[in-house]
């Protein structure tokens, strides 16, 4: 019997093709991941420096604090970062510290999905670098946060050319549209509630407070462990 394992281009699951000795048609099985890691992006620049864009309107970007990046990550005017800011220097360090904890405990991702926002792409790229993950980053537009946070319109996301430096898989076909799923700090909490032994449903009030109680870089590891005859899902918090 020959077994060939392939990652499907769009599915995010492992496809196992088995061919019997009799030469019959191959049978395909979908093997879903045993570990899912849900992580919030790290510290964003506009949260700590809300006026950084206005201070750089009439001249090229220049940092005025040690926590600000020396240069902007993609080539575009500071005004184009409105609603889609980069992460701070501390945010980059935090992402790499968490990734080091993932790597040291053998939680290396095989696939990485993230929101199209720059702060999420930067966080994902830092994790990819430190954990030595070989898979490119897959951008899912539906993981972006609620449109209610943008009454003046959605931000201008990085173009494929601008995000090429982050090893984004531009051949990947997203599963969701931008308006289909809402992702934010709540994603970590909802994932925990969904896979808990006793499922819980978050209220609107819960969702409003999640971005306060769930810190930047929060990481949740969901691991399915085979026990007896059933597969049970345990929630593990990774200490770094």
From TrEMBL:
It holds the Pfam family His_Phos_1. GO terms for molecular function: phosphatase activity. InterPro entries: His_Pase_superF_clade-1 (IPR013078), His_PPase_superfam (IPR029033), Phosphatase_SH3-domain (IPR051710). SUPFAM superfamilies: Phosphoglycerate mutase-like. Signal peptide: none annotated. This is Phosphoglycerate mutase family protein. The lineage of its organism: Eukaryota, Metazoa, Ecdysozoa, Nematoda, Chromadorea.
């Amino acid at each position: 019997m020959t077994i060939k394992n392939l990652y499907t281009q769009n599915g995010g699951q492992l496809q196992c093709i088995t061919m019997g000795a009799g030469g019959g048609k191959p049978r395909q099985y979908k093997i879903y991941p045993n570990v899912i890691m849900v992580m919030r992006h790290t510290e964003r620049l506009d949260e700590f420096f809300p006026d950084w864009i206005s201070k750089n309107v009439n001249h090229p970007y220049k940092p005025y604090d040690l926590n600000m990046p020396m240069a902007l990550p993609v080539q575009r005017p500071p005004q184009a970062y409105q609603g889609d800011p980069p992460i701070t220097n501390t945010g980059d360090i935090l992402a790499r510290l968490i990734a080091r904890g993932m790597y040291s405990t053998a939680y290396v991702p095989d696939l990485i999905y993230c929101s199209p926002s720059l702060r999420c792409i930067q966080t994902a790229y830092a994790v990819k670098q430190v954990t030595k993950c070989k898979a490119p980053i897959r951008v899912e537009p539906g993981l972006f946060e609620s449109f209610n946070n943008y009454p003046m319109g959605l931000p201008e996301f990085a173009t494929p050319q601008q995000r090429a430096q982050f090893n984004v898989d531009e051949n990947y076909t997203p599963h969701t549209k931008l308006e289909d799923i809402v992702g934010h700090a709540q994603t970590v909490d909802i994932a925990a509630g969904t896979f808990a032994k006793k499922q819980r449903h978050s209220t609107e009030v819960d969702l409003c407070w999640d971005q306060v109680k769930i810190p930047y870089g929060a990481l949740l590891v969901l691991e399915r462990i085979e026990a007896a005859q059933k597969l049970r899902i345990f929630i593990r918090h990774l200490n770094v």
